[in-house]
Amino acid sequence: MDEATPILTAERLTLTRPDDWHLHLRDGEALKAVLPDTVKRFARAIVMPNLKPPVTTVTQAAAYRQRILAAVPPGPTFTPLMTLYLTDDLPADEIERAIDSGIIHAVKLYPAGATTNSAAGVTDLKKCSATLARMERLGLPLLVHGEVTDPAVDIFDREAVFIERVLTPLLKDFPALKVVLEHVTTQDGVEFVKACGANVAATITAHHLLLNRNAIFAGGIRPHHYCLPVLKRETHRQALLTAATSGNPKFFLGTDSAPHARRTKEAACGCAGCYTAHAGIELYAEAFEQAGALDRLEGFASHFGADFYALPRNTEQITLVRAAWRVPDELPYLADDVLVPLRAGATVGWKLEDMQ
Ligand code: NCD
Ligand code: ZN
């Protein structure tokens, strides 16, 4: 047996400790509430910069990193991998400072208005040419929220149109730029990433692997299944599942766990984002098991992302056991409001074995 093959029995799955390559940790009391869920499971996480105000400088990212480290509970070590929020006027020299800092691992592109806290995002990528050229030269990845904001484009087509209107021209101008199509949700996205060179990869969320768009309307409107990019039809879910379980290193784990207080989700104009960190690896185990590919989970969750970011793979391990557990109806979040996690009040089929 290959040394790297995960140890898998019918009841237990031991794998290299995974990393989360796309995570929203928020700040303040929200950060303190959600961080333990991630730390229990993941050794590192790419931390999204869409705070209010956004994290646009190395100085801000360093301060945010300190706040995260101060909130890490005792237990396994956790390394936050920081990102900068791309704006129309992020100076190219900030890229130099980012590399020198050793704590910044990527820059995030939010098209202005595309999602939660994206108002300060990019209005026209042409304005960022000098900065993108510097990133290409220095090998700092661009993480893209791959949706156009043109209101004339159907919400279910926004990823495909983004690829055509933004991503394809971007890679023509910067062919060696490292790009991650974050939370890819469509067959179009999967095909695009597969056709690109090794400098282009994608993260996939557990909820896009497990749910299709019917979940948003199951018996009534389900605000806790509303995220961006929005869930897609079943054929797309199948394409994501095939990509994630294919062993292709271009596809790796990014939960996009995005907490919002209950009252901001259950509202006339509810926020986008699913909270999944409480079962951040267990939900993927379910999806991979559905596809009969549990033996492929380790590459996707623990190897390919580190390889793409040119970071060492983790050496510790975690064990999942096949045991159903009930997800609480709600989790503590803010002093005056709670968080409703994915699968609230229902069961998850894999459980993280308690640390020794
Ligand atoms: C994210 C959030 O809440 O910050 N929401 C979401 O639906 N995924 C932002 C994002 O990643 O789009
Ligand atoms: Zn996100």
Short description:
The chain has 356 residues and is of the alpha/beta class. It has helices at residues 28-41, 58-71, 92-101, 129-138, 158-173, 187-195, 206-210, 234-244, 262-265, 282-290, 297-308, and strands spanning 7-8, 12-16, 20-23, 44-47, 79-85, 104-109, 142-144, 179-181, 200-204, 251-253, 317-326, 331-334, 337-339, 347-352. It starts with 6 loop residues before the first strand and ends with a strand.
Report on the architecture of this protein.
With 356 residues, the chain is of the alpha/beta class. It has a single domain (7-352), classed as Metal-dependent hydrolases (TIM Barrel, Alpha-Beta Barrel). The chain is 32% helix and 18% strand. It has an 8-stranded parallel β-sheet with strand order 3-4-5-6-7-8-9-10. A 4-stranded antiparallel β-sheet has the order 1-2-11-14. A two-stranded antiparallel sheet has the order 12-13. The protein binds N-carbamoyl-L-aspartate and zinc ion. Zinc ion (ZN) binds at residues 22, 24, 48, 256, 258.
- Helical content class: 25-40%
Q: Are there runs of 5+ residues with pLDDT below 50, and where?
A: none
- What is the 3D form? globular
Provide the spatial order of strands within the biggest beta sheet.
Answer: 3-4-5-6-7-8-9-10
Strand content: 15-25%
Characterize the largest beta sheet: strand count, sense, and whether it forms a barrel.
8 strands, parallel
Assembly context of the chains: single chain
Task: Give every kind of bound small molecule, once each.
Answer: N-carbamoyl-L-aspartate, zinc ion
| Count of individual beta strands | 14
- Domain count, please report it: 1
Gyration radius over CA = 19 Å
Q: N-to-C SSE series?
A: EEEHEHEHEHEHEHEHHEHHHEEEE
CATH topology, what is it called?
TIM Barrel
What is the level-2 CATH architecture name? Alpha-Beta Barrel
End-to-end separation in angstroms reads 26 Å
In the CATH scheme, the class would be: Alpha Beta
The CATH homologous superfamily corresponds to Metal-dependent hydrolases
Structural class assignment: alpha/beta
Provide a count of the helices.
11
Q: Average the pLDDT over all residues and give the rounded result.
A: 96
